[in-house]
Amino acid sequence: MSETKIADYRLLERIGSGTYAIVYRAMHKTTQEILAVKVMAKSKPSNSAMDNVISEISLLKKLKHRHIVEMRDFLWDDENIYILMEYCNAGNLSSYIKQNRTLDEGTCKRFLQQLALALRYMRQHDVSHLDLKPANLLLTKVSGTYTLKVGDFGFAQRLKPYQENTAVKGSPLYMAPEILLKTSYGPAADLWSVGVILYECLFGKAPYSSKNMHELAERIHRNDPITIPSRPAITAECRQLLTSLLQRDPAQRITFEQFFDDPFLDLAHMACEENLEKAIALINRAIEREQRQELGAAYRAYCQGLQYFVPITRAESDPAKRQLLRQRVVTYLNRAEALKQQIYAHSQTMVREPEQQPTTSLNVRPPDAKLPAISAASCSSGGSGGNEPRNTSQEPGLAELALEHANVARGLQIGHEADKDASENRLDVALDRYTTALGLLIPVLQTDIAIGQKKLLRQRIEHWMEDAEHIKSIRSAQIMQEMESTQTNRYGCVVQ
What we know:
It contains 17 helices and ten strands. By secondary structure, it is an alpha+beta fold. The chain has four domains: about 10-85, Phosphorylase Kinase, domain 1 (2-Layer Sandwich), CATH 3.30.200.20; about 90-260, Transferase(Phosphotransferase) domain 1 (Transferase(Phosphotransferase), domain 1, Orthogonal Bundle), CATH 1.10.510; about 275-345, Up-down Bundle (Methane Monooxygenase Hydroxylase, Chain G, domain 1), CATH 1.20.58.80; about 405-475, Methane Monooxygenase Hydroxylase, Chain G, domain 1 (Up-down Bundle). A hairpin with a 3-residue loop joins strand 1 (about 10-15) and strand 2 (about 20-30). Helix 12 (about 320-350) packs across helix 17 (about 450-485), helix 15 packs antiparallel against helix 16 (about 425-440) and helix 16 packs antiparallel against helix 17. It is globular.
């Protein structure tokens, strides 16, 4: 490649450097497009470093994803190799953490969702990064909205799910123990790094922060336990994910599949245009079901819609649109709560006068106020409902199973207590009890029990899992409302 090709760009200020490369902000002289240019002198890199450069170029040519830094081109002349990449105008996650000291859980979650999307795409192509750290997670900022992008694939390589390697790669502070201890490792090494990144975002420092490399190595070799600070407080779901990621033994570490399905991460409901459309469809279905007096199905559809609307509202950077979305969330939350009370009142009436009540539907007149159908334009310019309420009395088949299994008896008792708590609006207590009940009941499905009993137990578990999800959606909307109204929302950035 002739020298005149790189001469099309004017190198501006230096924005980063490494052992063998310097990164500049650059501008195309004709189009005025701003890019980042990594410049590596041919005379400096060792053979292994040059292999890394070739590997990085090869991978970046094929990896095209919204949350991976895009390589636009690569050039060379007699002296240097140039990798031209999209420019990320908001620095990196490391500098962002230092600027804010710690990040609130909501911001951590949204950054983690973006990193997870990139990792899911990379795993689909059998690519392991092997140098994940905040400094390699670049940020762009447009109209107040931050987007995270994975960069620096110099150590990356193709590793299939059960393929292993022994070459030491990565940055020690974020390096999985199996790499630092020079044992074989596989793709799960990236998940340890994700755990360290999440820990640092939440608490302002890495779990094995040390004064020097020797101290770090000692802590790893001694297998010092990782303690999760009590402040700032984090939710149980966040703590569970953090603990699952930071397992020293890769065999005990959470898998990629489990990570992508993790309830704290909640990729299914993250803010995006597709999920806004789902939210709108669910709310319109809820309104339709309510008008048809199918209140159980309407309640479930409102809850499912809130699961999408809350993260979309939190991620909105435009104050006016955010306020509009928040008002809608409050409206749907109030609607769901009103329906829940009607359903409970009706169920109590059925208990008192069973012979006079229908058993297949709720013929309860809905509230007088009407909700118009909504559209994406009415929310921002930028599933189906469940069945009718269930009889929560203990089915005969489960009663027999409870006599044989103490965990079933205890789980059913706690689950029915959760039903009562939920109906009386003690949502946090109900959610805790549903979680406990499910923890007792789910393992029983793996035991040798009668097919009919297993079917009944599975149905009961699915019902309570659904109820727990509905409570989560209600509580997330309530918490958002409380935080906004008291002006204690500390979200320092908006990420999508």
